[in-house]
Structures are given as C-alpha cells and as structure tokens.
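note to self: dont lose this again. the chain is below, predicted strucutre after it. 323 aa total, dont forget to put it in the shared folder this time
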Amino acid sequence: LVIEHGDEPVGVDLIAVGERQFGLISGEQVIAARANERPVVFVYEWFQQYPVGVVAPAASGIASAEDLVGRRIGIPGRFGASYAGFLALLAANGLVEQDVQLEPIGFNAPDVVCLGAVEASVIYVNNEPLQIAQRAAAGECGAADGVTVIPVAAAADMVSNGVITNEATIAQDPELVRAVVDGFDRGLRDTINNPAQAYLISAVYVDNLPLTPELRTTLEAAADEQVAFLAENPDADRATIAARREALAEDLRAEFDAAELLQFEVLLASIELWDADQLGVTEPDSWALTQDTLLLMDFISAGIDLEAAYTNDFVPAAVPATE
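---
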C-alpha cells in the first residue's frame, strides 16, 4: 500500500483515469468530477458529520447562525469545504452570504480571531476551536476567555470525506474494492474504540506528533486497558465507549500540559465526527443537499445523476467492537 498526499482535484483526476484506484476525497469533489464526466464513485463515508463550523469568542454575543448577521466573519477563502459548508449553514437558517461581512484570511483563524481582526471565523470544528480555546485559557487570545462553536452539521447534513474509486475498478475487481473498504472500516472502528492505541501507532508515521516518554507510557497503559475492556465487553455500545474516551481525556488533562495533548484532543474531536451506529453509510439526502450547495456556489452549472455518484454496496455490516 502506497499513500500519497496531494490536492483533491489532482487525486480525483488520477483516480478517474485509472492511474490511481482509491483515494480519500470529499463528496463535493465527487459531484464536481462527475459533472465533468469523470467516472469516480464514493464507496465509504468516513466523516458522518460535516467538519466545518464557525467559531467565535464566548463573549462575542454570537451563539447561533442568526447572530452572524452583519458580523465580520473570517474564512480561508471562497472555495472548498469551508465555503460550501458556510453557505449551507447560512441557507439552513434562511440567510445568504450578503447578510454577513465575509473576509478571506487564509488558514490563520487562531491568530486572526485572537487578534480581534474578525468577530468569528469559519473553521474545522475538530481543530481550530481547540487551539483558540487553549490560547484563551492561557490568556493569549485578547479578552477571550472561551469559545462558542456553531457546527454546520447541526443544521445541514452534507457529504464530507470518504473512500472513492472509479467505475472500472468496481466493474472489473469488486473484491478489491470490498477489501479496501473493509480494511478502512476496521481501521476506523479500531481508532474509535481505542484512540490511545491509534495515536501510538500514528506516531510511527506522523512526523513531530507530540509524544514524550511520559505520555507514551500513559497511553500504552490506557491502550492495554482498553484492549482488555473490549475483550471482556464485546457488545459494549457507543455510549459506553464514548464515556471511556472522555474519562481518558479527563485523566490526561489532569496530568499533561494542554499543548502536549493538542493533537490527541484533535483526534478525540475527530472521532466524534466519524462515529455512528453504522459506519460508512452515506445517505441520498446528504448528496442532494451537497449538490444544491455546489449549484448555489456556481461550482457546477447543472445537477448530475447522484445515484451514480455513490454506493453503499461495499459497506460492511455492523459488527461488535472486538471483531
């Protein structure tokens, strides 16, 4: 297995012509590709909740989408998932872009928000809010003493990232597609069920992932404890496993510096976006809303046959946590 990092449109093009067989690509890119006659297909939904949202200092008076009217809102730019998600959030609340003052700021939300240059910012809910909250707690974010987050997913169920392939691979080697999807599904479930173990494994592959000897020892003990728990409780439900993740987080926060834990906190926040009773399944309504948003953005000029853009045929059936 070879993993390549790069821009989504480039990856989509390579997959479409068969130079690559699989990729982790967003739903909006799949729709855009098929609108341009590129035969890619979404076969597994990784993010069950769209990861974009809006963050604002807790004292800003911004607590809902309606409170954004007339405010200066930072955004990386008028492109990509951030822009699509923000427009969907506005539309779900009866608003349009002209109701706010949208200001491109690049991917610098923590700095710009803490400097007070914007009143709120479009962000990824599993990342920048944690950074801003950490700065606020340390007194390094102006007058902010906390953050409020307005997630797109609470108002609009859009398709985010997932596993894609091409029509030729599905037709010629469906068992390969099934094997790749099954492997991804198992890895995702293992990460959800035992994030300490996943973090330790990731440290081998992710450069500069914070992991002091003390944190490693603590995570190793936590990982072993969770392995034993899952073996003894193979039918543990989502709520129980989620409660154990939160208990682990609280224990770590009591022992380690916030900066050292930031990437583990990002992992835990990401898990909340991935977790579901049935992993991998994608829904027709999510695709319809995503396409409507792309039409609103003029990212595509006409709708496509959405049923051809995705399939749930390769998603494994729900299985116990220990399998």
